[in-house]
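Internal tracking record. Fields below are filled automatically when a chain is submitted to the structure queue. Please do not edit lines marked as system-generated. If the sequence contains nonstandard residues, flag them in the REMARKS field before resubmitting.
Queue: standard
Priority: normal
Entity type: single polypeptide chain
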Amino acid sequence: MKVAVAGCCHGALDKMYETLELLQRRHNVRPDLLLCCGDFQAVRNEADLRCMAVPAKYRHMETFYRYYSGEKKAPVLTVFIGGNHEASNHLQELPYGGWVAPNIYYLGYAGVVRFRGLRIGGISGIFKSHDYRKGHFECPPYNQQTIRSAYHVRNIEVFKLKQLKRPIDIFMSHDWPRSIYHYGNKKQLLKMKSFFRQEVENNTLGSPAASELLQHLKPTYWFSAHLHVKFAAFMQHQTNSKEELPKATKFLALDKCLPHRDFLQIIDVEHDPSAGDSLEYDAEWIAVLKATNSLINVTQSSWNMPEKSGLHAKWDYSVTEEAIKEVLEELNHNLKIPSNFTLTAACYDPSKPQKHVEPVHTINPQTTEFCAQFGLTDINDRIQQAKDEGAARGEYGEEEEEMDSTGSAEEPSEYNTDNSGLSSINPDEIMLDDEGGDEDLSTCSVDPSPDHPPDFSASFSDIRIMPDSMAVSSDDAMDSTNEELEKSGVSKQVEEKRLNERPLKRIGGNENGNSGIKKIKRRNQAIYAAEDDDKTE
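SYSTEM-GENERATED OUTPUT FOLLOWS
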């Protein structure tokens, strides 16, 4: 079975699907499935645009709304995760996953599905340590804080995924697992992205939560995006016992969707020829959701997941074969995900712009049906209850400080987004108007040209075993400070200015008068700007 994988789509669905059609015409390559690793931008209307944490000048409608309205239909089944440039209000309607348009499926905050016997998992958002232990409390209309925290990974999603025991074929994350750069062509990566050097050498670039999942799940393939650069790696995992068979993960980070960029990858994977062509629930994942339902939290309070420390009566929420069997019986062994997409918001009409429409908190019927079927907590319903209760006590209104009418994400905020992630460099801000292209950091080509049909097998030539010293826990990243990393971000930025002599673009200062920080327009160099840049995300 052929699977296409895309990096940051940024709403350019027409371009993405046109490229797939081009591959078919020129190379007779027709993928059965398309995976997208975040920044999908499922924007339905102007209200959704206001819920994207990007500067106003980057808020473009793009083409998703045509698929949402039914004007167009995705020519191939598309499964995606969320990133940090999303219509968060739309994706929040589907915390357990669901259809955002016919034939386009969102995996939710975290999720696992099956297609033709292939087991596909993913986690949405990016890692930020200051929000990692919180519950999912955000809801639209967002303020300057929650428009960003809404897409930050939470420990409960990582905890759920770590309960899985059965093998995962493909896993997706938006940000890179921390340490993964040690298993590919690091020299070439640093040659092209020299401002990564200190973080790579300190082993602080990327997500410790994703690294923790990589060590636990050991999927056959792991795909990421976020940093707008293509990079391949091959990691051979250590075995826990002599009886355990060696496992290895092929990692690939994809570039973003732009003309003349290698933003698509085609892989051939084994599948079950007897399986149907429908997207299916994963029985073990459903059982895990049921087992962990009592852990749902919709408050801003920080809390830890159960662990074997003597403080929790139960810490193992992995499920038994009997629990999985019960899920199968509940579904009469029919795991097909229902095609129950419904419109929950007005669709953009180019002839009737609605620039001042306000985003609202919506309970999606798909989520209601899913929770009722499996006895799960509807997170949005719980959030709405908490919101109503807080409003009755006169508390909620004080917390909500909505964005101005422009919905600007550029204005300084008292909320420090902590770009260093407390010992994990994981930028929110990625420049969307890249200047020029960078050299491919893998040895394969995915340029859909007559001369370069996609090839994945050549990307991985260096097999390395992950040493214990590289083991990363997301909780380990919580207690260290970020002062030196923030300082190094400033120094690296100044150094890049000298090395590249590129035009600079000034941005606004913060409330302390620090207006001298500048953004380097060259692709990705803005991602390590200091505190002022944090506030633009």
